[in-house]
């Protein structure tokens, strides 16, 4: 099998960095959050009623997002 590295361009409504907790919050669009779903122990998706993704929270972001000088 072959592997491809794909970079997606995502439109971001708002993002916030919280260096004191090493957390990155990305809001894709404004909306009312009906459900918060754990993807794994450090990733949380905020969903609207219809299941549309409103926001993403990454904990331990400096390690997971490979963002230099994050914290």
Task: Give the helices and strands, then pairings.
Blueprint lengths: L13 E5 L4 E5 L7 E6 L2 E5 L5 E7 L1 H4 L7
Antiparallel strand pairs: 1-2, 2-5, 3-4, 4-5
Protein architecture, described:
Helices cover 6% and strands 39% of the residues. It has one helix and five strands; from the N terminus they run E-E-E-E-E-H. It has one helix at residues 61-64; strands spanning 14-18, 23-27, 35-40, 43-47, 53-59. It has a five-stranded antiparallel sheet.
In short:
With 71 residues, the chain is mainly beta. The chain has 1 helix and 5 strands.
- Strand arrangement, largest sheet? 1-2-5-4-3
Radius of gyration in whole Å, from Cα? 14 Å
What structural category do the secondary elements indicate?
mainly beta
In round numbers, the mean pLDDT is: 78
Query: What share of residues are in beta strands?
Result: 35-45%
InterPro entries: DUF2283
Task: Tag the structure with descriptive keywords.
71 residues; disordered N terminus; mainly beta; single chain; five-stranded antiparallel β-sheet; 39% strand
């Amino acid at each position: 099998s072959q592997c491809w590295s794909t970079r997606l361009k995502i439109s971001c409504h708002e993002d916030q960095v919280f260096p004191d907790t090493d957390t990155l919050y990305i809001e894709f669009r404004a909306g009312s959050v009906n459900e918060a779903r754990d993807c794994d122990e450090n990733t949380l998706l905020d969903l609207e009623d219809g299941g549309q993704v409103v926001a993403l929270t990454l904990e331990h972001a400096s390690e997971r997002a490979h963002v230099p000088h994050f914290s």
